[in-house]
Write a structure and sequence with these properties.
This protein has 421 residues and is mostly helical. The chain has 19 helices and no strands.
Length: 421
């Protein structure tokens, strides 16, 4: 714990920036948007299907745009880039507050998905990864803690605010509060970033790794992409249809909501663990392994209909999600270096956003045709297992030796315990 305190004390401006950028990326996340869907549907007199189609469409367009706009974090000072992204996000929330027509709703949804879920997360993780070498795992872990904080706090804040001020005014109030918090935080990182940039210029080593310049022809790129795609593809769909799934299995709404709280709690635990693990073992070593809890969670809901399985499922996928938030970024940094990290990560951010766009319609298609949830989750488990196994191809040979040594140590300790009277 002392290490964490020291890392924060020495880098509090950058880490506060990273945490809050992750937190306010919630404005573009599905769980936040879903709070306002009933009001938009009623106000514009559109169907759930029509809204779902619109949401998927703008998400796909936003995902494509991320691959073009995300690379500029490599060439534009972080402060300026962050001001553009956050300023645009605030304007998009204000636009949604006035979404009394389909045109305004479409424009607002597109902007919050592009700038919120996409570039806010991209800016937080890429910016932190670029400016940290030692303690990178802890820094990424601390910054990513903003995501579970947003999942946990914003529904509790927004539901009473909507009831008190109305849905439109609640978005206006929230965007103004976010501006008052974030503008000083963004401006405060300017001297820190300038000092870090000067350090980089004085460094002889080039942080760009030329072996991976042709990314789309590299098998490694597609292995990482599959790993990044699998879990969000499944989780976004489960989040969106969790109450439908619960109703089909005879679970109460309150039980489903209670179960979901385990995701926020255990993803935070996963994030806390991931920082120390990444700094100790490296992101690349952990990259195929962090999905193991998710595999166990998906297998549990595949073989059991018990209501007690659902919170356990959310706990296990929450741990995997928390671990992955740090490990995936660290792995990309270790493989591709920091010089063109923004460009490379923009491609992976596109893959991530596409996965969240494609998951819900695929699950909806299967659920509408009465495919049992167990069968859907069985295939979901196979997808995660495949992505985990494929990721082992990224390991150098010494990692397999390290894994064997760790297994031998664990077996030795187990035998010692059993032999004691």
């Amino acid at each position: 714990m002392g290490d964490w305190v020291q890392v924060f004390r020495e880098n509090k401006r950058l880490l506060t920036f990273g945490f809050l950028f992750s937190f306010f990326s919630s404005f573009g996340q599905t769980f936040f948007v879903s709070l306002y869907v009933p009001f938009w549907i009623q106000s514009l007199d559109i169907s759930n299907t029509a809204f779902g189609t619109l949401y998927a469409t703008v998400t796909v367009v936003a995902a494509v745009l991320i691959s073009f706009s995300g690379k500029y974090i490599d060439t534009i000072p972080l402060k300026n880039y962050a001001l553009f992204v956050f300023g645009g996000l605030t304007l998009s929330v204000l636009l949604l507050s006035q979404a009394k027509s389909l045109v305004l709703l479409t424009a607002g949804l597109f902007l919050v998905r592009w700038l919120g879920q996409g570039l806010m997360t991209h800016t937080s993780s890429t910016g932190i990864a670029k400016f940290f070498e030692g303690n990178r795992g802890k820094a990424l872990s601390f910054s990513a803690m903003g995501h579970p904080a947003g999942h946990f706090l914003l529904p509790f804040i927004m539901l009473p605010l909507i009831a008190f001020a109305g849905w439109s005014n609640s978005l206006i109030i929230l965007s103004l509060i976010a501006l008052l918090i974030m503008i000083p935080v963004i401006l405060a990182i300017a001297p820190v970033c300038e000092a870090k940039s000067m350090e980089e210029k004085n460094n002889v080593k080039d942080s760009v790794k030329p072996a991976h310049t042709n990314h789309f022809k590299s098998l490694d790129f597609w292995i990482i992409s599959l790993n990044i795609f699998a879990l969000p593809f499944i989780l976004t769909a489960v989040f969106l249809y969790q109450y439908t799934i619960g109703e089909a299995r005879g679970w109460s709404v309150s039980w489903v909501a209670f179960s979901f709280s385990f995701f926020a709690i255990f993803s935070a635990i996963g994030l806390l663990i991931s920082g120390n693990l990444t700094d100790r073992f490296s992101g690349l070593f952990l990259f195929p392994l962090y999905l193991i809890p998710a595999i166990l969670g998906v297998l549990m809901v595949t073989i059991s209909d018990s209501q007690y399985v659902f919170p356990a499922f959310y706990a296990l996928v929450g741990i995997a999600s928390g671990l992955g938030s740090t490990i995936k970024t660290a792995t990309q940094t270790e493989i591709y270096g920091t010089g063109n990290l923004g460009k490379v990560r923009s491609y992976f951010s596109t893959i991530l956003v596409l996965s969240t766009a494609l998951g819900p319609p695929v699950f909806a298609f299967l659920l509408d045709r009465n495919v049992p949830f167990n069968i859907i989750m069985a295939f979901s488990g196979l997808l995660i297992i495949l992505s985990s196994l494929a990721s082992f191809r990224l390991w150098p040979l010494e990692y397999f030796s390290r894994m064997k040594a760790l297994a031998n140590v664990w077996v030795g300790k187990t035998k010692t315990r059993k032999s004691k009277p």
